[in-house]
Design brief:
By secondary structure, the protein is of the alpha+beta class. The chain contains three helices and seven strands, in the order αβββββββαα.
Length: 146
Protein backbone atom coordinates (compact mmCIF):
# COMPACT_ATOMS: atom_id res chain seq x y z
CA UNK A 1 0.00 0.00 0.00
CA UNK A 2 2.92 2.37 0.57
CA UNK A 3 3.66 2.42 -3.15
CA UNK A 4 0.15 3.69 -3.96
CA UNK A 5 0.17 6.27 -1.18
CA UNK A 6 1.34 9.18 -3.35
CA UNK A 7 -1.25 8.63 -6.14
CA UNK A 8 -4.54 10.46 -6.57
CA UNK A 9 -7.56 8.25 -7.34
CA UNK A 10 -10.86 9.01 -9.06
CA UNK A 11 -13.65 7.15 -10.85
CA UNK A 12 -13.08 6.36 -14.51
CA UNK A 13 -15.13 8.40 -17.02
CA UNK A 14 -17.83 6.51 -18.91
CA UNK A 15 -17.26 6.09 -22.63
CA UNK A 16 -20.66 7.67 -23.37
CA UNK A 17 -19.51 10.92 -21.78
CA UNK A 18 -16.33 11.21 -23.84
CA UNK A 19 -18.06 12.39 -27.03
CA UNK A 20 -21.10 14.66 -27.27
CA UNK A 21 -24.43 12.92 -27.91
CA UNK A 22 -24.97 14.81 -31.20
CA UNK A 23 -21.65 13.53 -32.55
CA UNK A 24 -22.43 9.98 -31.37
CA UNK A 25 -25.79 10.06 -33.20
CA UNK A 26 -24.19 11.45 -36.34
CA UNK A 27 -21.53 8.73 -36.34
CA UNK A 28 -24.18 6.05 -35.86
CA UNK A 29 -26.27 7.35 -38.77
CA UNK A 30 -23.19 7.76 -40.99
CA UNK A 31 -22.19 4.14 -40.33
CA UNK A 32 -25.67 2.95 -41.39
CA UNK A 33 -25.63 5.19 -44.48
CA UNK A 34 -22.22 3.87 -45.51
CA UNK A 35 -23.50 0.33 -45.12
CA UNK A 36 -26.43 1.16 -47.41
CA UNK A 37 -24.00 2.84 -49.84
CA UNK A 38 -21.92 -0.37 -49.92
CA UNK A 39 -25.07 -2.36 -50.73
CA UNK A 40 -25.86 0.04 -53.59
CA UNK A 41 -22.31 -0.29 -54.96
CA UNK A 42 -22.51 -4.09 -54.78
CA UNK A 43 -25.87 -4.04 -56.58
CA UNK A 44 -24.41 -1.86 -59.33
CA UNK A 45 -21.49 -4.26 -59.76
CA UNK A 46 -23.84 -7.26 -59.80
CA UNK A 47 -22.46 -8.92 -56.68
CA UNK A 48 -23.96 -9.86 -53.34
CA UNK A 49 -22.98 -7.74 -50.33
CA UNK A 50 -22.72 -9.52 -46.99
CA UNK A 51 -21.70 -8.19 -43.62
CA UNK A 52 -20.63 -10.80 -41.12
CA UNK A 53 -21.29 -10.44 -37.42
CA UNK A 54 -20.43 -12.58 -34.44
CA UNK A 55 -23.08 -14.24 -32.36
CA UNK A 56 -23.35 -16.98 -29.79
CA UNK A 57 -25.01 -20.29 -30.61
CA UNK A 58 -25.69 -23.31 -28.47
CA UNK A 59 -24.39 -26.55 -29.98
CA UNK A 60 -26.02 -29.98 -29.80
CA UNK A 61 -23.91 -30.80 -26.74
CA UNK A 62 -25.25 -27.74 -24.92
CA UNK A 63 -22.12 -25.61 -24.94
CA UNK A 64 -22.00 -22.03 -26.18
CA UNK A 65 -19.89 -21.29 -29.22
CA UNK A 66 -19.24 -18.01 -30.98
CA UNK A 67 -19.83 -18.17 -34.74
CA UNK A 68 -19.84 -15.71 -37.60
CA UNK A 69 -23.17 -15.29 -39.32
CA UNK A 70 -24.33 -12.91 -42.06
CA UNK A 71 -26.04 -9.79 -40.79
CA UNK A 72 -29.58 -9.28 -42.04
CA UNK A 73 -29.51 -6.24 -44.31
CA UNK A 74 -32.51 -4.40 -45.63
CA UNK A 75 -32.30 -1.91 -48.42
CA UNK A 76 -33.59 1.56 -47.63
CA UNK A 77 -34.83 2.06 -51.18
CA UNK A 78 -37.70 0.65 -53.23
CA UNK A 79 -39.39 1.37 -56.54
CA UNK A 80 -42.65 3.27 -56.60
CA UNK A 81 -45.59 2.70 -58.96
CA UNK A 82 -43.91 4.76 -61.72
CA UNK A 83 -40.73 2.67 -61.53
CA UNK A 84 -38.66 5.40 -59.86
CA UNK A 85 -36.33 4.57 -57.00
CA UNK A 86 -37.46 6.08 -53.69
CA UNK A 87 -35.01 6.28 -50.77
CA UNK A 88 -35.85 6.66 -47.08
CA UNK A 89 -33.41 7.32 -44.24
CA UNK A 90 -34.02 5.25 -41.13
CA UNK A 91 -33.23 5.87 -37.49
CA UNK A 92 -33.80 2.43 -36.04
CA UNK A 93 -37.25 1.43 -37.22
CA UNK A 94 -38.42 5.01 -37.75
CA UNK A 95 -38.23 7.08 -40.90
CA UNK A 96 -36.46 10.42 -40.58
CA UNK A 97 -38.46 13.45 -41.64
CA UNK A 98 -36.06 15.04 -44.09
CA UNK A 99 -38.03 18.08 -45.19
CA UNK A 100 -41.07 18.99 -43.15
CA UNK A 101 -43.07 15.79 -42.87
CA UNK A 102 -41.60 14.27 -46.04
CA UNK A 103 -39.66 11.09 -45.39
CA UNK A 104 -38.59 9.93 -48.86
CA UNK A 105 -36.25 11.08 -51.62
CA UNK A 106 -37.19 10.38 -55.24
CA UNK A 107 -34.01 9.38 -57.07
CA UNK A 108 -35.06 8.04 -60.45
CA UNK A 109 -32.84 5.04 -61.15
CA UNK A 110 -30.30 2.91 -59.30
CA UNK A 111 -27.28 4.57 -60.91
CA UNK A 112 -27.91 7.75 -58.91
CA UNK A 113 -28.05 6.03 -55.51
CA UNK A 114 -24.36 6.31 -54.56
CA UNK A 115 -24.08 10.09 -55.19
CA UNK A 116 -27.27 10.64 -53.16
CA UNK A 117 -25.82 8.64 -50.27
CA UNK A 118 -22.67 10.79 -50.47
CA UNK A 119 -24.79 13.96 -50.25
CA UNK A 120 -26.76 12.65 -47.29
CA UNK A 121 -23.57 11.63 -45.47
CA UNK A 122 -22.22 15.14 -46.05
CA UNK A 123 -25.43 16.63 -44.68
CA UNK A 124 -25.23 14.45 -41.57
CA UNK A 125 -21.60 15.50 -40.99
CA UNK A 126 -22.67 19.15 -41.29
CA UNK A 127 -25.40 18.59 -38.69
CA UNK A 128 -28.34 19.21 -41.04
CA UNK A 129 -30.24 16.11 -39.84
CA UNK A 130 -29.77 16.65 -36.09
CA UNK A 131 -33.32 17.99 -35.69
CA UNK A 132 -34.75 15.01 -37.60
CA UNK A 133 -32.84 12.60 -35.36
CA UNK A 134 -34.10 14.43 -32.26
CA UNK A 135 -37.69 14.18 -33.54
CA UNK A 136 -37.25 10.44 -34.14
CA UNK A 137 -35.94 10.02 -30.59
CA UNK A 138 -38.77 11.98 -28.92
CA UNK A 139 -41.32 9.18 -29.00
CA UNK A 140 -38.95 6.54 -27.71
CA UNK A 141 -39.13 5.38 -24.13
CA UNK A 142 -35.77 5.30 -22.41
CA UNK A 143 -34.81 2.23 -20.47
CA UNK A 144 -32.59 2.37 -17.43
CA UNK A 145 -30.87 -0.87 -18.35
CA UNK A 146 -31.76 -2.47 -15.03
Amino acid sequence: MSMLKGLTFTTAPRAANLIPSEEYRRNKLIANLQEQRDIAIADAEGRDHKVMRRRWEITETGEKKQVEAPKRLRRWWTKDADGKVVLVVRWGSRLLELQGEKTAIVIGDNTKLVPVFDKIIGAVRAGELDAAIDNANKGRARSTGK
